[in-house]
């Protein structure tokens, strides 16, 4: 036997021969317990926000990744009566998230969430662009996520709607539980003690949250029970003492993957659409565009707000300071030819699914029928490590051409991601460092 390279004669042993080593002992965490934080406000009607306070008093840290919202719901007619057996009224996808138009999160009275009314789409983008069929067909069903299929506006042919309807029909009560998708509630590290969290959850309207085939739909979604299940971590006193010493010199730091959704209107009869100055503060790392009928955005019992249609889009490009991000535009043909493979491949590449034995639950056919997501990456490369990207500025401009004039008013949704750092000092002052 001989070495493959004379320049490398380093010898290694397989781990199976490390017979004298043993794993280190975990002593930093004593135990994790759960407490239920219930609303401090009375839920008088659908327009009343849900207010929840999570106390940070004591020595326990908080694991926000393991903390979840629980809601028990019921669909009723506006007068409070039950739905009839053949009444075709059900709920849209991802109701645990889509039931809230936006969420405000404060830490020690500092607003740490994005202040916008696009929370349902922000959550939907996060889920649909990260999960595969295994997750969607199992744990995501705790949020009543059931994948919609074409035609998405149909109450009989959309299998996702039909499956959700079985849980909600005839005013049956149904339960939802999972993490909230607000960025500040998805910290990878434990939140240090002494930080109070205040959440204010604003409700979506019934015409947005529900779909119905009735002639005169008039419904409400009643909350029967709601609480936030907080994971509290009992930390070893020695670790706490060490953290107290370190925080005197430098604040605790938490990386936040910021995400937000903005939108613009494409008028009826448009063959071209231009959107200038997309990101006035700084350029994000990833950008996703999708088109949805405006009536679904505003709330319509007959329209699915997560139906991202192609509207005969034939060409799309994103430019930064006049230079195309990928050197040339994406040309597509959504007719029977189905020539949109380049956009489909880019979706998997930028979502870090390309050439891996995992994927998104979006088939090539789905891409042209309700899942038309056009994705751009503004990073030099998608390194799968916790690097901080350099802050970049520039004029981002979106250009879209349609082969056929739009037959209705359309909203162009733009979901984008960037980085921020949340800091907490010795006196528990919270600050957000972001571009």
From TrEMBL:
GO annotation, biological process: deoxyribonucleotide biosynthetic process
Any single GO CC term annotated in Swiss-Prot or TrEMBL for this entry: cytosol
Superkingdom, natural source: Eukaryota
InterPro entries in the record: RNR_small_fam
GO terms, molecular function: ribonucleoside-diphosphate reductase activity, thioredoxin disulfide as acceptor
Name of the protein described by the UniProt record: Uncharacterized protein
Organism from which the protein derives: Mytilus galloprovincialis (Mediterranean mussel)
């Amino acid at each position: 036997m001989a070495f493959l390279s004379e320049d490398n004669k380093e010898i290694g042993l397989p781990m199976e021969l490390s017979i004298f080593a043993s794993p280190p002992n975990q002593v930093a965490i004593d135990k994790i317990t759960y407490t239920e934080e219930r609303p401090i406000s009375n839920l008088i009607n659908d327009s009343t926000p849900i207010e929840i306070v999570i106390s940070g008093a004591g020595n326990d840290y908080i694991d926000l990744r393991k903390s979840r919202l629980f809601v028990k719901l019921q669909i009723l007619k506006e007068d409070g009566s039950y739905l009839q057996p053949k009444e075709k009224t059900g709920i849209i996808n991802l109701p645990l998230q889509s039931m809230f138009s936006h969420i405000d999160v404060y830490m020690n009275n500092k607003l740490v969430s994005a202040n916008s009314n696009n929370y349902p789409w922000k959550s939907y983008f996060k889920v649909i662009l990260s999960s595969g069929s295994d997750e969607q067909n199992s744990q995501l069903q705790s949020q009543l996520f059931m994948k919609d299929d074409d035609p998405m506006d149909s109450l009989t042919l959309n299998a996702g709607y039909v499956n959700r309807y079985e849980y909600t029909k005839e005013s049956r009560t149904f339960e939802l539980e999972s993490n909230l998708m607000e960025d500040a509630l998805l910290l990878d590290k434990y939140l240090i003690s002494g930080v109070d969290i205040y959440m204010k959850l604003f409700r979506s309207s019934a015409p947005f949250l529900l779909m119905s085939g009735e002639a005169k739909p008039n419904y409400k979604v009643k909350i029967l029970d709601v609480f936030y299940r907080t994971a509290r971590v009992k930390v070893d006193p020695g670790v706490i003492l060490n953290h107290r010493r370190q925080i005197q010199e430098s604040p605790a730091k938490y990386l936040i993957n910021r995400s937000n959704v903005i939108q613009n209107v494409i008028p009826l009869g448009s063959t071209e659409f231009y959107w200038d100055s997309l990101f006035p503060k700084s350029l994000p790392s990833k950008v996703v565009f999708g088109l949805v009928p405006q009536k679904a955005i505003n709330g319509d019992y007959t329209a699915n707000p997560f139906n991202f249609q192609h509207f005969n889009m034939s060409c799309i490009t994103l430019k930064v300071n006049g230079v195309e991000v990928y050197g040339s535009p994406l040309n597509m043909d959504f007719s029977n030819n189905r020539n949109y493979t380049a956009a489909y491949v880019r979706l998997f590449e930028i979502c870090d699914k390309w050439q891996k034995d995992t994927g998104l639950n979006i088939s090539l056919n789905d891409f042209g029928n309700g899942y038309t997501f056009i994705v751009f990456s503004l990073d030099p490369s998608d390194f799968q490590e916790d690097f901080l990207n350099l802050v970049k500025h520039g004029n981002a401009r979106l250009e879209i051409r349609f082969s056929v004039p739009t037959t209705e008013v359309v909203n162009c949704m733009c979901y984008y991601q960037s980085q921020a750092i949340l800091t907490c000092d010795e006196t528990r002052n919270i600050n957000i460092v972001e571009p």
